[in-house]
From TrEMBL:
Keywords: DNA-binding, Transcription, Transcription regulation. Signal peptide: none annotated. This is TetR/AcrR family transcriptional regulator. Residues 1-32 are annotated as: Disordered. Residues 1-18 have a biased composition (Basic and acidic residues). One of its GO terms (molecular function) is transcription cis-regulatory region binding. Gene3D superfamilies: Homeodomain-like, Tetracycline Repressor, domain 2. Residues 54-73 bind DNA. It comes from Nocardia speluncae. Residues 31-91 form the HTH tetR-type domain.
Length: 418
């Protein structure tokens, strides 16, 4: 049997052979761990969507165990809900003018609100994606809170616009308020980068141009009826019905059985004659949307006498295509994270090249802009179309002529010919 002295001797010898290594530092839990978790979750949700992220993904990204994560948040939904409502509240609070600013000249007050909203949005860029696209996955009570936050922001913008342009009608104020919010929050839709101060300045300048715009009277034009698809052309019919369901319910809430039923097929197995599954169908929809934009660029540039004429043609085609396929335009923005990973790289490349070509034309019209600034404006112009579409649908307030004018104002800094 070995005694205490033997054990002590073994320990001493061990210290000699290891060179008296220092004691391992004690790992302490960071004081801001909850904030770190919220930030990591916002990035994950923003990139992959609420349904594309698990608690294990968030924990792994932070280098902690799932058990440690659950000590702070009881569920993925709790994380999603807290971050969605937090950034929504931050945006709502940013547009409240302080008491000592209520007597400011209207232009100065509008400027202050735009700067505050832009600053908060830039500071919370990853989380703003939750506010823009993932809100439908909030539970009803939380969705109501989120709607109240959105209303507070839009009401504040409308109030500032009413003071800035007293002649604006109620409908025009609504269109412009949504356009301002869209231009600012569009930064959550892409990964182009600019330092904070220049980015805030660009957003405020863009919004100031929109606020000064005189919109033409709304025109009540009946939307063109959708092109009839023969019942025998099941491949195309499935694509349309799938997109309609993804738009109405969200991709995760649609089954192959739902798509089959909507297309008049007797069984879900019939879908697999045309698509390998609903993700294959979603990929086909994304390819169509991406190609609609990319394929227009070459002919528009070739037929134009200059960059602005080419851009005017591209804007007209983009707006017309978006009006003709509203559901596809919306799905293109909301469901990208559900496209199979192997397809995303190719789609992203098509998207990036299209934006780069638009940005190149914008810089030829406005040589004062940098490449990143032009890309931000192109993304803002694209986002405007889907945001007005989901706010007004086919209501004349967002007629094609008006949307075209708003896109031109974002890209040129003024309407075409203005």
């Amino acid at each position: 049997m070995r005694g205490r002295d033997d054990l002590a001797g073994d320990g001493a010898d061990a210290r000699k052979t290891t060179g008296d290594l220092p004691a391992r530092p004690v790992r302490r839990r960071p004081k801001n761990r909850r904030a770190q978790i919220a930030a990591a979750a916002a990035n994950a949700f923003g990139s992959l969507g609420y349904h594309g992220v698990s608690m294990e993904d968030i924990a792994g990204g932070l280098g902690i165990s799932s058990a440690a994560l659950y000590r702070h948040y009881p569920s993925k939904y709790a994380l999603f809900q807290e971050e969605s409502l937090r950034v929504g509240q931050a945006m709502a609070e940013s547009v409240r003018l302080p008491a000592d600013a209520t007597e400011q000249p209207p232009q100065q007050a509008l400027q202050q609100v735009l700067e505050a909203l832009s600053t908060v949005t830039v500071a919370n860029r990853a989380s703003v994606a939750l506010v823009r696209w993932e809100g439908r996955y909030l539970e009803p009570a939380d969705r109501e809170i989120r709607a109240e936050q959105q209303t507070a922001v839009l009401d504040a913008l409308e109030s500032r616009l009413a003071a800035y342009s007293p002649g604006l009608g109620n409908g025009d104020r609504k269109v412009l308020a949504i356009s301002l919010l869209s231009a600012i929050t569009s930064i959550a839709d892409h990964h182009a980068t600019l330092p904070t101060k220049p980015l805030v300045a660009l957003l405020v300048s863009t919004c100031t141009g929109l606020a000064a715009l005189t919109l033409p009277p709304p025109v009540d034009i009946a939307p063109a009826p959708p092109v009839e698809i023969p019942e025998s052309f099941k491949h195309e019919l499935l694509l349309r019905k799938g997109v309609e369901l993804f738009h109405a319910r969200g991709y995760p809430n649609v089954s192959v059985e739902d798509i089959a039923t909507a297309a008049g097929l007797s069984a879900a197995s019939a879908v697999y004659r045309f698509y390998r599954g609903k993700s294959d169908l979603l990929t086909a929809a994304f390819r169509r949307a991406a190609e609609r934009v990319s394929s227009a660029i070459g002919p528009a540039v070739a037929a134009a006498t200059g960059p602005q004429e080419a851009l005017d043609s591209l804007i007209d085609q983009y707006v017309a295509g978006s009006f003709a396929e509203r559901e596809l335009t919306f799905v293109y923005y909301t469901e990208f994270q559900h496209v199979p990973a192997e397809e995303r790289a190719a789609l992203r490349n098509v998207q990036r090249l299209s934006v780069d070509e638009w940005a190149r034309l914008v810089r030829q019209v406005r040589p004062d802009l940098s490449g990143p600034q032009a890309r931000f404006l192109v993304h803002a112009a694209f986002a405007l179309v889907v945001d007005l579409g989901r706010s007004f649908g086919t209501v004349p307030l967002s007629s094609q002529e008006r949307v075209t004018l708003l896109m031109q104002t974002i890209l040129y800094g003024h309407p075409a010919g203005g």
